[in-house]
Every structure is written in C-alpha cells, then in structure tokens.
Amino acid sequence: ALSRKKNRIGPKAIASAIAMIISGFVAFYASFGACMFQMQVISLTIPAFLAVPTTFLIFYLDYQDRKS
C-alpha cells in the first residue's frame, strides 16, 4: 500500500491570495459607492492607482516572510 502524506496548506501559504481577494472586493465596493454618488473620476482612479502598489506590497511581505 502506498502511504500518502496529506499536503495541507496552512494560512501563511495562502495569506497573499486572501489579501488580494479581499482588496479586490474593497476596491470594487469603493468604486461602486463612488459611482452611486456620481464621483466617476475618483471611482476609477483611486482603486486603479492603489491596486498595483498594494499588490507589490503583498508580494514583498510574502517574500520577506518566506525568506526568513
């Protein structure tokens, strides 16, 4: 019989994915709310402007955590 080890993914392994998903929802609802109040410039530029630095920050922190 082949012995199988259960590959369990801990919360640290998927923390960056969870943060990306949550930040996507927050950006969506922020832009939706800004559109409801007819602030189209803010609703498009702020989430788009913050998405890239947030992504790089999450990946950098994840890299630093795995490196140590």
**SSE run:** HH
Helix content: over 70%
How much is the radius of gyration in Å? 18 Å
Total strand segments: 0
Strand composition percent = under 5%
Number of domains: 1
Mean pLDDT reading: 76
Query: Which structural class best describes the helix and strand composition?
Result: mainly alpha
Low-confidence stretches: none
Shape: elongated
List the total number of helices. Answer: 2
Largest sheet: none
Key phrases:
mainly alpha
Report on this structure.
The chain has 68 residues and is an all-alpha fold. It is built from two helices and no strands. The chain has helices at 15-36, 40-67. The mean pLDDT is 76.
Structure summarized in a few sentences:
By secondary structure, the chain is mainly α. The protein has helices at residues 15-36, 40-67.
Write the layout of secondary structure elements.
Blueprint: H1 15-36, H2 40-67
Keywords: Membrane, Transmembrane, Transmembrane helix
Transmembrane segments: 12-31, 37-61
